[in-house]
Amino acid sequence: MTTDMAALRQYTWTEHTEVLIKGKVKRTLDSTCRYDAWGKLEKTPVDAAKTSETPRTMSKRPLNRKKADKADDVERALSLVLDYLPPKPEQVEYLLRNGNATLGQAGPGKAEIRFKRYAKDGELLTFTFDPASKVLLKIGINSCLTSQEKDPVTLDAVFETLPGGTNHLASTILNGQTKRYR
User: Fold this and answer.
1) Do residues 134 and 114 lie in contact, with contact meaning Cβ atoms separated by under 8 Å?
2) Which of 55, 60, 141, 151 shows the smallest number of beta carbons within 10 Å?
3) Which long-range CB contacts under 8 A does 22-27 form with residues at least 24 apart?
């Protein structure tokens, strides 16, 4: 991961993110991504008009308030993505050293490492990788928007390899099961 992150500093790419609530697409984001001189990932929305569609104020009308609450949940869910992607090598090493990781099979030719408490309690982060090449294929995250294990969210991040061998995040799908909208 560290080698790939260093190699990605020379690239600029487009990232596509879909946010689903109760299985329905509520927001789609396309961003141009690159690393700055200090190694921090910068994301610039491709279409700034799309990102400003989300209502930000509370209304006295219940329908508008519900829409604003949903938009708030979408924003909180998207901020969760930043907690996990790209994975922080120092956090992964810490979890490995402290017994918060288990190794298992994910199918033929695939292995997985399951991490408990990557960013907070009650969550599960799963790295699926090719054990022969040690290339990361997918990251699956089961977490919650709140600390009381309410409003579960899942994040599926798929990785691909560039022709030069650099592995990168290709797509993410964030799915929220917000209980207050059921």
Assistant:
1) no
2) 60
3) 22/176, 22/177, 22/178, 22/181, 22/182, 23/175, 26/70, 26/74, 27/54, 27/74, 27/78
